[in-house]
Structure formats: C-alpha cells, structure tokens
C-alpha cells in the first residue's frame, strides 16, 4: 500500500485512549495504553495512535501521512507545522513626473 499525505487545518479534534498490546521477549504480550487522536484535515477524517500525550488542538496546521482504511487516514506520523509567516505588501504611489533639474548660471 502506498502512503498518503494530507495537510490542512485541524478541526473536530478529539482525544481519547485505546488499550493495545506490545510484545515482550520475557513476558509475552503486555497491555499498553495508547492515546487515540482523531481529527479532520480538509474535511477528511484522520486517526493516530501514539504512546505520548498529543499536542494537537483545533486550528493547528498539520501534515499527516499514513494508509487510508475505510475512508479514514490511519496516520503513522503527524507534524504540527508553523503558522504561515505574515508578509508585508509594499505598494508604491503612482509615479509623478519630475521636472528636469534647473540649470544654474555659471560664473
């Protein structure tokens, strides 16, 4: 399956938890609590399961990459992008005709 990426502004952000299992060599499968974060990017649903707490809030500009399953992007990675820098647009006033420099009499 090919990874897909999606970027946009996060909306409908919900945080929850999910119990998963991680293999261990000594004890077999061990229960692990995962953070489940669901949100929408450009109207498309995205879900990611992570071990740490998530810092995703409504209005964040994100890029997510993963596999699409049943219409939802199951993200393997999400990056919070910095806001776009403000740009200053310089406008110039209409050009005015300049008079030629006056010549001063030489002595």
For the largest sheet, list the strands in their spatial order.
Answer: 1-2-3-5-4
Structural class: mainly beta
- Mean pLDDT comes to 82
What is the CATH architecture term?
Beta Barrel
From the spread of the alpha carbons, the general shape counts as: elongated
Uncertain runs are: none
Helix tally equals 0
State the major sheet: 5 strands, mixed, barrel
- N/C terminus separation: 89 Å
Strand content: over 45%
Would you list the SSEs in sequence order as H and E? EEEEE
Helix content: under 10%
User: Whole-number radius of gyration?
Assistant: 28 Å
Name of the level-1 CATH class: Mainly Beta
Oligomer: single chain
Q: How many structurally independent domains?
A: 1
Write down how many β-strands occur, each being a DSSP E stretch of 2 or more residues: 5
CATH topology: OB fold (Dihydrolipoamide Acetyltransferase, E2P)
Task: Describe what is shown at a glance.
The chain is mostly beta strands and 107 residues long.
Structure description:
- This protein is an all-beta fold and 107 residues long.
- It contains no helices and five strands.
- The chain has a single domain, classed as Beta Barrel (OB fold (Dihydrolipoamide Acetyltransferase, E2P)).
- It has strands at residues 4-22, 30-41, 44-50, 61-69, 72-81.
- It is elongated.
